[in-house]
Amino acid sequence: MLFIIAFVLLLLLIYGPHVWIRQVMRKHGAHDDDIPGTGGELAQHLINRFELSGVSVEATDLGDHYSPVDKAVRLSGDIYNGRSITALAVAAHEVGHAIQYHRQEAITHLRHRYLPLANSIQKLAVGFFFAVPLVLAIFKVPHAAIVMGVVGVAAMLASVLIQFIILPMELDASFNKALPILVKGDYIRKEQYQAANSVLKAAAFTYVAAALVDILRLGRWLTILRGAIR
Fold it and tell me: Among the residues of 60-205, which ranges form H helices?
Protein backbone atom coordinates (compact mmCIF):
# COMPACT_ATOMS: atom_id res chain seq x y z
CA MET A 1 0.00 0.00 0.00
CA LEU A 2 2.80 2.40 0.88
CA PHE A 3 4.49 1.55 -2.39
CA ILE A 4 1.34 2.45 -4.33
CA ILE A 5 1.00 5.76 -2.47
CA ALA A 6 4.66 6.57 -3.05
CA PHE A 7 4.30 5.72 -6.74
CA VAL A 8 1.21 7.94 -7.12
CA LEU A 9 2.96 10.82 -5.33
CA LEU A 10 6.02 10.40 -7.53
CA LEU A 11 3.83 10.37 -10.63
CA LEU A 12 2.10 13.56 -9.50
CA LEU A 13 5.45 15.20 -8.79
CA ILE A 14 6.78 14.28 -12.21
CA TYR A 15 3.73 14.77 -14.42
CA GLY A 16 1.85 17.33 -12.30
CA PRO A 17 3.76 20.43 -13.52
CA HIS A 18 3.12 19.46 -17.16
CA VAL A 19 -0.61 19.11 -16.50
CA TRP A 20 -0.67 22.39 -14.53
CA ILE A 21 1.01 24.30 -17.37
CA ARG A 22 -1.49 22.99 -19.91
CA GLN A 23 -4.41 23.91 -17.65
CA VAL A 24 -3.10 27.44 -17.02
CA MET A 25 -2.53 28.05 -20.73
CA ARG A 26 -5.97 26.72 -21.60
CA LYS A 27 -7.75 28.57 -18.78
CA HIS A 28 -6.47 31.96 -19.90
CA GLY A 29 -6.46 31.16 -23.62
CA ALA A 30 -10.07 32.15 -24.30
CA HIS A 31 -10.61 34.70 -27.06
CA ASP A 32 -11.16 38.23 -25.75
CA ASP A 33 -12.62 40.80 -28.14
CA ASP A 34 -11.37 43.61 -25.88
CA ILE A 35 -7.76 42.72 -26.62
CA PRO A 36 -6.78 44.95 -29.55
CA GLY A 37 -4.16 42.69 -31.16
CA THR A 38 -2.92 39.14 -31.52
CA GLY A 39 0.11 37.61 -29.84
CA GLY A 40 2.01 37.85 -33.10
CA GLU A 41 1.13 41.52 -33.49
CA LEU A 42 2.21 42.26 -29.92
CA ALA A 43 5.51 40.46 -30.48
CA GLN A 44 6.20 42.52 -33.61
CA HIS A 45 5.18 45.72 -31.81
CA LEU A 46 7.56 44.98 -28.93
CA ILE A 47 10.39 44.15 -31.31
CA ASN A 48 9.90 47.54 -32.94
CA ARG A 49 9.49 49.31 -29.61
CA PHE A 50 12.71 47.92 -28.16
CA GLU A 51 14.54 48.27 -31.48
CA LEU A 52 15.55 44.64 -31.69
CA SER A 53 17.14 44.95 -35.10
CA GLY A 54 17.10 41.84 -37.25
CA VAL A 55 14.61 39.96 -35.05
CA SER A 56 11.57 38.55 -36.84
CA VAL A 57 8.28 37.01 -35.73
CA GLU A 58 7.21 33.70 -37.25
CA ALA A 59 4.36 31.22 -36.85
CA THR A 60 5.57 27.68 -36.13
CA ASP A 61 4.38 24.16 -35.40
CA LEU A 62 7.41 23.46 -33.19
CA GLY A 63 6.24 25.23 -30.03
CA ASP A 64 6.78 28.75 -28.75
CA HIS A 65 10.45 29.69 -28.52
CA TYR A 66 13.09 32.23 -29.44
CA SER A 67 15.88 31.14 -31.77
CA PRO A 68 19.04 33.15 -31.06
CA VAL A 69 20.69 31.60 -34.14
CA ASP A 70 17.98 32.76 -36.56
CA LYS A 71 17.01 35.77 -34.41
CA ALA A 72 13.36 34.74 -34.64
CA VAL A 73 10.51 34.81 -32.15
CA ARG A 74 8.53 31.71 -33.11
CA LEU A 75 4.96 31.34 -31.88
CA SER A 76 2.50 28.49 -32.22
CA GLY A 77 -0.70 29.19 -34.14
CA ASP A 78 -2.86 29.72 -31.04
CA ILE A 79 -0.40 32.30 -29.71
CA TYR A 80 0.48 33.94 -33.03
CA ASN A 81 -3.17 34.41 -34.05
CA GLY A 82 -4.75 34.47 -30.59
CA ARG A 83 -6.33 37.37 -28.75
CA SER A 84 -6.09 36.13 -25.18
CA ILE A 85 -4.08 36.66 -22.01
CA THR A 86 -2.17 33.48 -22.80
CA ALA A 87 -1.30 34.74 -26.27
CA LEU A 88 -0.11 38.14 -25.00
CA ALA A 89 1.88 36.72 -22.07
CA VAL A 90 3.61 33.97 -24.07
CA ALA A 91 4.45 36.39 -26.89
CA ALA A 92 5.93 38.84 -24.35
CA HIS A 93 7.88 36.02 -22.71
CA GLU A 94 9.52 35.01 -25.99
CA VAL A 95 10.28 38.65 -26.82
CA GLY A 96 11.82 38.76 -23.33
CA HIS A 97 14.33 36.18 -24.53
CA ALA A 98 15.00 38.27 -27.63
CA ILE A 99 15.72 41.25 -25.38
CA GLN A 100 18.11 39.15 -23.29
CA TYR A 101 20.13 38.22 -26.37
CA HIS A 102 19.92 41.69 -27.93
CA ARG A 103 21.39 43.18 -24.75
CA GLN A 104 23.91 40.33 -24.54
CA GLU A 105 22.97 39.73 -20.94
CA ALA A 106 25.19 37.33 -19.04
CA ILE A 107 22.22 35.10 -18.25
CA THR A 108 21.95 34.06 -21.92
CA HIS A 109 25.10 31.98 -21.46
CA LEU A 110 23.02 29.52 -19.43
CA ARG A 111 20.91 28.54 -22.40
CA HIS A 112 23.71 28.91 -24.95
CA ARG A 113 26.08 26.73 -22.96
CA TYR A 114 23.84 24.15 -21.33
CA LEU A 115 20.76 23.55 -23.52
CA PRO A 116 22.70 22.11 -26.50
CA LEU A 117 24.68 20.06 -23.98
CA ALA A 118 21.46 18.70 -22.49
CA ASN A 119 20.18 17.73 -25.94
CA SER A 120 23.48 16.03 -26.82
CA ILE A 121 23.57 14.11 -23.53
CA GLN A 122 19.99 12.96 -24.00
CA LYS A 123 20.76 11.68 -27.51
CA LEU A 124 23.78 9.88 -26.08
CA ALA A 125 21.60 8.27 -23.42
CA VAL A 126 19.06 7.08 -25.97
CA GLY A 127 21.91 5.70 -28.08
CA PHE A 128 23.19 3.69 -25.13
CA PHE A 129 19.74 2.28 -24.43
CA PHE A 130 19.32 1.23 -28.05
CA ALA A 131 22.77 -0.40 -27.99
CA VAL A 132 22.07 -2.63 -24.97
CA PRO A 133 20.01 -5.32 -26.79
CA LEU A 134 22.58 -5.31 -29.61
CA VAL A 135 25.46 -5.86 -27.19
CA LEU A 136 23.59 -8.72 -25.53
CA ALA A 137 22.77 -10.35 -28.85
CA ILE A 138 26.32 -10.14 -30.23
CA PHE A 139 28.59 -10.60 -27.21
CA LYS A 140 26.32 -12.44 -24.74
CA VAL A 141 27.86 -10.41 -21.89
CA PRO A 142 25.14 -9.21 -19.48
CA HIS A 143 27.61 -7.23 -17.37
CA ALA A 144 28.59 -5.08 -20.35
CA ALA A 145 24.93 -4.34 -21.00
CA ILE A 146 24.44 -3.37 -17.35
CA VAL A 147 27.38 -0.94 -17.54
CA MET A 148 25.98 0.60 -20.72
CA GLY A 149 22.57 0.89 -19.08
CA VAL A 150 24.02 2.64 -16.04
CA VAL A 151 25.88 5.08 -18.30
CA GLY A 152 22.67 5.75 -20.22
CA VAL A 153 20.70 6.40 -17.03
CA ALA A 154 23.40 8.74 -15.71
CA ALA A 155 23.47 10.63 -19.01
CA MET A 156 19.70 11.11 -19.05
CA LEU A 157 19.63 12.28 -15.43
CA ALA A 158 22.41 14.75 -16.24
CA SER A 159 20.31 16.04 -19.12
CA VAL A 160 17.36 16.57 -16.78
CA LEU A 161 19.57 18.42 -14.28
CA ILE A 162 20.85 20.75 -16.99
CA GLN A 163 17.26 21.69 -17.86
CA PHE A 164 16.88 22.95 -14.29
CA ILE A 165 20.06 25.04 -14.62
CA ILE A 166 18.53 27.27 -17.31
CA LEU A 167 15.45 28.05 -15.16
CA PRO A 168 16.82 31.48 -14.01
CA MET A 169 16.87 32.60 -17.63
CA GLU A 170 13.22 31.61 -18.05
CA LEU A 171 12.21 33.38 -14.85
CA ASP A 172 14.03 36.51 -15.99
CA ALA A 173 12.20 36.49 -19.34
CA SER A 174 8.86 36.20 -17.55
CA PHE A 175 9.21 38.44 -14.51
CA ASN A 176 12.01 40.89 -15.27
CA LYS A 177 11.00 41.39 -18.88
CA ALA A 178 7.51 40.31 -19.95
CA LEU A 179 5.41 41.16 -16.88
CA PRO A 180 6.80 44.71 -16.38
CA ILE A 181 6.42 45.31 -20.12
CA LEU A 182 2.78 44.20 -20.09
CA VAL A 183 1.94 46.22 -16.98
CA LYS A 184 3.85 49.44 -17.62
CA GLY A 185 2.87 49.48 -21.30
CA ASP A 186 -0.83 49.06 -20.41
CA TYR A 187 -1.05 46.00 -22.66
CA ILE A 188 -3.16 44.30 -20.01
CA ARG A 189 -5.83 45.66 -17.69
CA LYS A 190 -5.40 45.68 -13.91
CA GLU A 191 -7.89 42.86 -13.49
CA GLN A 192 -5.89 40.73 -15.94
CA TYR A 193 -2.67 40.96 -13.93
CA GLN A 194 -3.12 37.70 -11.99
CA ALA A 195 -3.96 35.77 -15.14
CA ALA A 196 -0.90 37.12 -16.94
CA ASN A 197 1.25 36.37 -13.91
CA SER A 198 0.02 32.74 -13.88
CA VAL A 199 0.67 32.29 -17.61
CA LEU A 200 4.16 33.76 -17.31
CA LYS A 201 4.92 31.45 -14.40
CA ALA A 202 3.79 28.50 -16.51
CA ALA A 203 5.88 29.70 -19.45
CA ALA A 204 8.96 29.94 -17.24
CA PHE A 205 8.54 26.38 -15.95
CA THR A 206 7.89 24.80 -19.35
CA TYR A 207 11.45 23.46 -19.64
CA VAL A 208 11.33 22.13 -16.08
CA ALA A 209 8.07 20.31 -16.80
CA ALA A 210 9.56 18.83 -19.97
CA ALA A 211 12.61 17.68 -18.01
CA LEU A 212 10.38 15.97 -15.45
CA VAL A 213 8.47 14.17 -18.20
CA ASP A 214 11.86 12.96 -19.45
CA ILE A 215 12.16 11.12 -16.14
CA LEU A 216 9.01 9.18 -17.08
CA ARG A 217 10.65 8.25 -20.37
CA LEU A 218 13.68 7.18 -18.34
CA GLY A 219 11.44 4.81 -16.40
CA ARG A 220 10.22 3.22 -19.61
CA TRP A 221 13.79 2.80 -20.82
CA LEU A 222 14.74 1.12 -17.54
CA THR A 223 11.87 -1.36 -17.98
CA ILE A 224 13.06 -2.17 -21.51
CA LEU A 225 16.64 -2.47 -20.29
CA ARG A 226 15.69 -4.85 -17.49
CA GLY A 227 13.79 -7.04 -19.96
CA ALA A 228 16.75 -7.10 -22.34
CA ILE A 229 19.20 -8.14 -19.60
CA ARG A 230 16.92 -10.96 -18.49
Answer: 77-80, 85-102, 108-139, 142-165, 167-172, 179-184, 193-204
pTM: 0.81
Contact 135, 147 (CB under 8 A): no
CB-based contact 141:228 (threshold 8 Å): no
Which strands, in side-by-side order, build the sheet including 72-76?
Answer: 56-60, 72-76, 65-67
pLDDT tens by residue, 105-162 = 999 988 778 778 777 877 777 777 677 777 767 766 666 666 666 776 777 777 777 7
Cβ neighbours of 88 (radius 10 Å): 29
β-pairing, 72-76 with 65-67? antiparallel
Count of C-beta atoms within a 10 Å radius of residue 127: 12
CA atoms within 13 A on the CB side of 122: 18
Q: What is the number of H-type helices and E-type strands within the chain? A: 10, 3
CA 13 to chain centroid: 17
